[in-house]
TrEMBL record:
This is Peptide/nickel transport system ATP-binding protein. It is found in: Cell inner membrane. GO terms for molecular function: ATP binding; ATP hydrolysis activity. One of its GO terms (cellular component) is plasma membrane. It comes from Rhodobacter viridis.
Amino acid sequence: MMLRVTALSVRFRHHDGGYSQPLTGLDLTLSRGEVVGLVGGSGAGKSLVAEALMGLLPRNAEVSGQITLAGLPLAPGQLALAPQGIDALDPLTRLGAQISRFARLAGQPPPDVCAALARLGLPEEAARAFPHQLSGGMAKRALIATALATGAPFLIADEPTLGLDPETADRIMELLAGLAAEGHGVCVISHDLPRLVAIAERVTILQEGRMVETAPAEAFTAHRLTHPFSRALWEAQTWAAQTWSEEAAPC
Ligand SMILES: Nc1ncnc2c1ncn2[C@@H]1O[C@H](COP(=O)(O)OP(=O)(O)OP(=O)(O)O)[C@@H](O)[C@H]1O
């Protein structure tokens, strides 16, 4: 079963009658059992892709293009989003109740909250915690747990490792790879290109609202990227990581 996005564009109508168009002509495919990545500089339109696919854009947004699942228009409940900001969690509701609420709104039977938390490596006690009582890594897992509670087979994780220490970031990426191994189709939006390349089948690179290429993961490590922007993005991150490790080495 394949989710296919073709020529996705988003433009916003302004009060003065003018338009801005921050996303133009994105193509993307995602099958169950795989991870695909979406990367790009800040403001490139990555979150916009997620919001357009989820139907979350404001009324002045005009979305064009095709979004199909197995050849049919994408139906509600097939795709879930773990958003970037932990402020997407309800600050006044305990996490367990939030997981149950997502399941109920998606028409799912009442979930086993402890099992839902354990699946994400969260302790049982997290069910009684309010969002402000969670660490950054726990909150990122909580966002994924609420998305999974909908029972959707496809998941978008928007910047799931942002602001996390390297070990926690590794664990979150392993967890997303594990969800794909269980049969989910997982799209990961991330600035963390080396970690993304380690788990993704292929990565789509956006530059200022336009895709410049979709490259198989091995094209990054084998230096076979075709577009200069993709190469610069990869080299900037791997060069920085190498520099830091050299600086950390004893002299
Ligand atoms: N509701 C909106 N109205 C007008 N423009 C918007 C709206 N939402 C997003 N944009 C514009 O779309 C562009 C892309 O934003 P988006 O949040 O998708 O970037 P991003 O690639 O996710 O960036 P970052 O990595 O910094 O989160 C930005 O220029 C932003 O100003």
